[in-house]
Amino acid sequence: MASFGMQSPRRKKVVYSDRYIPSRSGVDLQAAFSLSQTDDLSACPSNNNEAMDLDQRKEQEANRTFSTVLKNELFGDNINLAGTSNKPTDQITPPRSSSDNGSTSASERTPRQATNFFSYQSPNRSRPTSTSIENDIYSLSPVRVDSQRLLLSPTKKPRSIAKVPYRVLDAPELVDDFYLNLLDWGSQDVLGVGLGSSVYLWNASSGSVDKLCDLGDSDKITSLSWIGTGTHLAVGTNTGLVQIWDAQTSKCTRTMTGHTQRASSLAWNEHILTSGSKDKTILHRDVRQPEHYMKKLTHHKQEVCGLKWNVEENKLASGGNDNKLYVWDGLNDTPLHRFEHNAAIKAISWSPHQRGILASGGGTTDRRIKIWNTLNGNKLSDIDTGSQVCNLCWSINSVELVSTHGYSRNQVMIWKYPQMSQVASLTGHTYRVLYLSLSPDGQTIVTGSGDETLRFWNVFDKNKNESGPQSVLLDAFTQLR
Q1: What region holds the CDC20/Fizzy WD40 domain (predicted)?
Q2: What residues contact residue 97 under an 8 Å CB cut-off, 6+ apart?
Q3: Closest by alpha carbon to 318, among 297, 292, 288?
Q4: Which of 164, 285, 368, 411 sees the fewest Cβ atoms within 10 Å?
């Protein structure tokens, strides 16, 4: 009989399973993951670290280094040897359990949560293919196959630049004057040099030297500039005259006036010849017209020592001893931009690779190279070279820039653009390197100095695009009067 005072116990049904699923309720997963990293030395108490001998510390340091590299290979987090990522990645905190209730304070979180390598991250590379996975599985190397391929791949050798010139020519009476421009290499591979009152032509193909003209004791050569076709040479003189000489016949085809002092800079834009003078003016001359000049610009307050036309964009840059750099749109009277240095601006060069990019250099008290975007007027780069900047010239074969310098290093420097990192520094001149010109093929530069020498340097590689477009300039001399 059943008793009214007590009930018979009911058996519980037990279900057996081959899987063990632990209960994670009330557990902070983030803290648990952080505490699981016991291979780091920082997890050891400070007193234990002090008690360890040197051998043990070296062993643990080696283990930590290996562990860090292994994590890098397994998880691709780019972790360096210090255990931190090379670049920050967006980390998503794992969701808390329902028992946390959002009540975990900042003081309760371990400091290693910021660099916890278990934290979820966005994938930074594509998923490996089955072939790469199979290679990684059977590889005996501790690094991945792609890492092995990267480590074993041949490194690109840096370009070799000769530190000495391959040719040195004597240039007696080459004037040591910062404001003059006495060197220009024409498109016909003929180099023009102004020495005293004479102009000499050196043919790079044959090596012959011919005298183009001699002004006598009454005048001196102050500037030179070849027309784009390389057939005629414009010559500026100390008395302010501008002459045009036919290089084939060695005859002066025209003499133009307009300046009251020396014509220290010249620049061609097809049939337009622009001259800058110590009288602070810039004159535009149309060699097809009988007038000696068609327009005069008077914005500079001191000698105009730098002139460069950008023929493709029809822009003119002018630099002067008043520390001003003006950019002009064609033959307009009003400049587009006015830039400044802290010294005279003779070094000017337009980039042949990017539209509207202009480089300028300052004199002794400035010593800086500045890169300008003339499309919007912004300054892109500003670097201190450590010495007076005398000339600038862009390479036509690579995105590099050559600068020549005076006080106090007298060196030739090559820069990588846009990083403006120094590629090479060439020395040899004992005076200021005041003159610079680039060969038509873009491989060689020639420098002139007050030490009365011309030095030829192989600094650039051959143009890979030999069949590239060539500029076509008008030969305006058929219309000279």
Answers
A1: 169-457
A2: 24, 25, 26, 27, 28, 29
A3: 297
A4: 164
Kindly give, in sequence order, each residue whose CB lies less than 8 Å from that of residue 294, ignoring residues fewer than 6 positions away. 284, 285, 286, 331
- Consecutive 10-residue runs of the chain (481 residues): their mean pLDDT? 49 60 60 51 42 54 64 57 39 40 42 48 54 62 64 67 94 96 97 97 94 95 97 97 96 97 97 97 96 96 98 97 97 96 98 97 97 97 96 96 93 95 93 97 96 96 61 44 41
pLDDT reported for residue 60: 65
In the structure encoding, which two tokens stand for residue 270, read together? 């097809």
CA distance between the termini of the chain: 144
Distance CA 420, CA 436 (A): 20
What stretch of H or E contains 32? helix 29-35
Amino acid in position 177:
D
**pLDDT for the residue 462:** 83
Amino acid at 329: D
- DSSP SS3 for 384: strand
Q: What pTM was computed for the model?
A: 0.68
Q: Could you tell me if 413 and 420 are in contact, meaning their C-beta atoms sit under 8 angstroms apart?
A: no
Q: Phi, psi at residue 66, to the nearest 5°?
A: -65, -40
d(C-alpha 181, C-alpha 386), whole Å: 23
* Residue 63, pLDDT score: 73
Decide: 309 and 316 in contact? Cβ < 8 Å. Answer: yes
CATH architecture of 167-461+473-479: 7 Propeller (2.130)
